[in-house]
Amino acid sequence: MSRWIGLAVLVVGLPVVCSSPAVAGPPYQSDDPEPTDYGHYEIYAFNKGTRAKSDLSGASGVDFNYGAAPDLQITATLPIGFDFPSNGMSAFAPSNVELAAKYRFLHQDTFGFDVAVFPRVFLPSGSRQIGDSQASFLLPIWVQKDWGKWSAFGGGGCQFSAAGRSHDFCMYGATLTRQVLPKLQLGVELFHQTADRAGTPSTTSLGIGAKYDLDKNVHLLGYVAKGVQNAPTTNQYSWYAAILFTF
Predict the structure, then answer these.
(1) Residue 126's CB: how many other CB atoms inside 10 A?
(2) How far apart are the C-alpha atoms of 84 and 87, rounded to whole Å?
(3) d(CA 11, CA 93)
(4) Whole-prediction pTM value?
(5) pLDDT greater than 90 at residue 21
(6) How far apart are CA 221 and CA 102, in angstroms?
(7) What sign results for the dihedral spanned by CA atoms 92, 94, 96, 100?
(8) Where along the chain do its domains lie?
(9) Architecture of the domain defined by 2-246
């Protein structure tokens, strides 16, 4: 296990970029409605990012998930963010801590789809340069359907900021994955986010993701995406990389 811990440290320390707090069903930006199994843990050592307008900003950290009850997952995400703007005023500091709970209230075996809510609170970052200095609240709903080696999931919701309506925005995503090998899953995602500031453009991106199981407890995740709407100012390209520990 020590070698995997070493890899986790390496992943968290890689240079990454990220424009704003984002919700994801790792490695995708969309989430899925499946909670962590009751009594089990999922721990991601991650980095994620976006490049836009020649600026780099990002966060690396740890995402803790615990199956607190049947169909209930509790989550805490602890990120360290940085910003490398084109004006040279670089910054590095703790970013927005995230606290969340995912509850699946419908199941495929009875309803035909898995459906869950995943409300998430973003705490103020405490920094003027990194993250958002105001608290915010995201309320999404996620839906999933599985058949054979295929899985489709997506949904969306809106995020509401204590800074006022000018900082509110909504996001929507759809992902299709396939188990192409016993240990390898590949997927494609279309994701859209409305403007998160007054006067800024909305963004749409197309991404591809992969998950590879090293063994039953250690998994590698990767994702790359490119903007297809307002790309120069919102998402020239973005990525997510993580080591996932499950037990």
Answers:
(1) 13
(2) 8
(3) 18
(4) 0.86
(5) no
(6) 21
(7) positive
(8) 2-246
(9) Beta Barrel (2.40)
What's the Cα-to-Cα distance from 17 to each of 181, 221, 243, rounded to whole Å? 30, 17, 17
Residue 85's pLDDT is 82
The confidence score (pLDDT) of residue 246 equals 97
Residues 79, 53 contacting (CB under 8 angstroms): no
User: What pLDDT sits at residue 164?
Assistant: 85
* Tokens at 187, concatenated: 């997927």
The first and second tokens of residue 145, run together, are 């359907």
Residues 97 and 18: their CA atoms lie apart, in Å, by: 15
Full DSSP string of 171-236: EEEEEEEEEEETTEEEEEEEEEE--SSTTPPPEEEEEEEEEEESSSSEEEEEEEEEEEESHHHH-S
Residue 7 is predicted with a pLDDT of 37
Task: Tell which residue, 123, 61, 127, has the closest CA to residue 91.
Answer: 127
CA distance 63 to 214: 19
**Residue 103: alpha-carbon gap to chain centroid:** 17
